[in-house]
């Protein structure tokens, strides 16, 4: 599964992406705002992250900036099922590309994908000292829930408060006012027969 937006190619990650991924995310200002990324982040961490990608994450993508020359890996975005049963939207963008609208652009695709997958509600959160992420979420239609759970980050010395958001996703063909029903995240495998085409499309 891959998608093109106005400026991005969203595609799955492969082991050969590990060096570029490690360079893009290897910034303490990025990792401190993520709840699960290790710090310091190196290529071995990138390979471990990419290693489980194809088996159970059909809704996780690398953000590849499409350019007239070589494309650039500039971030990652995805949806993951939490222990609570909620489906959480998460993303990060490399620092040189902050403030350029890439997270919002990719986020719009993720909302469309959630609708297609039958996910009726998304949650997201950001640390209180990262208001730029809140601005992205509000542009995507998320609203604060009023909850401020403490979350850990390996880029911080201790847990820190977050601001939680949620967004209802209307099912195709209705206004989204019906009751939510739990939908399992599908277990899809990336078709190996298309991998070469995807690599060419991103290279």
TrEMBL record:
Residues 169-189 are annotated as: Disordered. Keywords: Transferase. GO terms for molecular function: acyltransferase activity, transferring groups other than amino-acyl groups. InterPro entries: Acyl_CoA_acyltransferase (IPR016181), GNAT_dom (IPR000182), N-acetyltransferase (IPR051531). It comes from Sphingopyxis indica. Pfam families: Acetyltransf_3. Signal peptide: none annotated. It comes from the Bacteria. Residues 19-170 form the N-acetyltransferase domain. This is Protein N-acetyltransferase, RimJ/RimL family. PROSITE patterns: GNAT.
